[in-house]
Description:
Blueprint: H1 3-17, H2 25-36, E1 40-45, H3 49-55, E2 80-81, E3 88-92, H4 96-99, E4 106-111, H5 112-118, E5 125-130, E6 137-140, H6 141-149, E7 155-160, E8 168-175, H7 184-193, H8 195-202, E9 212-216, E10 223-230, H9 238-257, E11 262-265, H10 277-294, E12 301-306, H11 309-321
Parallel strand pairs: 3-5, 7-12, 8-10, 8-11, 11-12
Antiparallel strand pairs: 1-4, 2-3, 5-6, 9-10
Amino acid sequence: xxxxxxxxxxxxxxxxxxxxxxxxxxxxxxxxxxxxxxxxxxxxxxxxxxxxxxxxxxxxxxxxxxxxxxxxxxxxxxxxxxxxxxxxxxxxxxxxxxxxxxxxxxxxxxxxxxxxxxxxxxxxxxxxxxxxxxxxxxxxxxxxxxxxxxxxxxxxxxxxxxxxxxxxxxxxxxxxxxxxxxxxxxxxxxxxxxxxxxxxxxxxxxxxxxxxxxxxxxxxxxxxxxxxxxxxxxxxxxxxxxxxxxxxxxxxxxxxxxxxxxxxxxxxxxxxxxxxxxxxxxxxxxxxxxxxxxxxxxxxxxxxxxxxxxxxxxxxxxxxxx
Length: 322
């Protein structure tokens, strides 16, 4: 699967996951990142007559079979007609899994940017339906103009839910110093990732409080990396705030060093480590904003995942003050 198509798919998922107030900015960011790197999508096509003749008996063809057509064959994209005037959208897919949620079809891998620029030439084409069988993104002509005029920028989003549910290049684990699993989000991530995560963590020889280390995500297929950071146990000392800020800053820096464009954080130290939720949320926002301001040329989508209602309330109160 094309990495840039995966990032678009992830951003669309998170947009739906964030609810009706979620911003489309991470989706726009992912699309522009893809346009800059020849994002490939799958486009369903009508089976060419030349290929039908070559196949012979269509009943013998299974989904996923590949054929090489030995004679010239005209290609026609499949259409999703939207009214009795013949206006249509063209369906495109970020992955074969998304395409196979609907009807089985012949398809081709196509660079998305030429399609985006070509839509104005097709009189009755209203735009593109990205992943129309699942969490769809309707790119109408007007929306395409909005996307093309948009200038990518880093974005912070607060969502209600577990970090494990997010689709991101990296998810962050609130770990302990040994990095060998534990309770809360640490235990949940280890259970979801499987025993291979523990095996890799053993090779890291622990982690200092405030620092961060990175591993593969293993069975967590919605992320490429897990970043393990160790938050402070809360004693009310100024040092606690410094160490917690370091957790967010160092995690973002590690994500950047590994080419990530999206990262999802849990509430670090707000569980058994006892950090007051409102203070922790303020530190998370300030530290992450500082990192983003120091890396203005690098676009990063940052998600803060609030597993408890009081976490969401704390972030919402802080954001309203800004």
